[in-house]
């Protein structure tokens, strides 16, 4: 197995210790932090492939830490929380989280979600748009107007400017731009990108769509590329 490093942040020492034992037993390297501020600094100074972040912590809470992380990194973030209400999950997604685990959880559930997020991140090469380099793209280039997704380089640009997307955002955009003008429901997007059965996932997908629009649209409230088909779903349109 490839060597991956996971940053674990929780103010409960027992949880951090248990996660470290679980993850190291699966072959992962583990960095530990007890508050959000420590986690942000560890992420800045180390090559990290995934962050597991508690929501409620002293000094700096997980939501604030995630927002700061998203300012410089697209590493996958999994939130841990004792709260399982949909509003709390959506708050985490708005902060830039890729997944959400409710305490208590089983090691099996944790490993499944960790592997899923790392797989998606690895498929993007662990890079942000603009960091890719090499020969000019050949196949796998999708274009509409000034929006270009180069799947060979895992790079998205708008009018020539690189756009940093998370792995989930990239895969959603790839699904839609590779099927121009085709409408995909929230459930279809979720099942295609998350590779999981879709149950009441409308708000989850909507949050990620909003994030994509904020990055690729000049005016996210009046999108040029990523359109809503009312009552049906979403599509990237021919421009």
Descriptive notes:
With 239 residues, the protein is of the alpha/beta class. The protein folds into two domains: 5-123, 3-Layer(aba) Sandwich (Rossmann fold), CATH 3.40.50; 141-236, Orthogonal Bundle (Arc Repressor Mutant, subunit A). Helix content is 38%, strand content 19%. α2 packs parallel to α3 (62-70). The radius of gyration is 18 Å and the shape is globular. The chain starts with a strand and ends with a strand. Mean pLDDT is 84; it is low at 127-138.
List keywords for this structure.
2 domains, 8 helices, 38% helix, single chain, globular, Rossmann fold, Arc Repressor Mutant, subunit A, alpha/beta, 239 residues, 5-stranded parallel beta sheet, 11 strands, 4-stranded antiparallel beta sheet
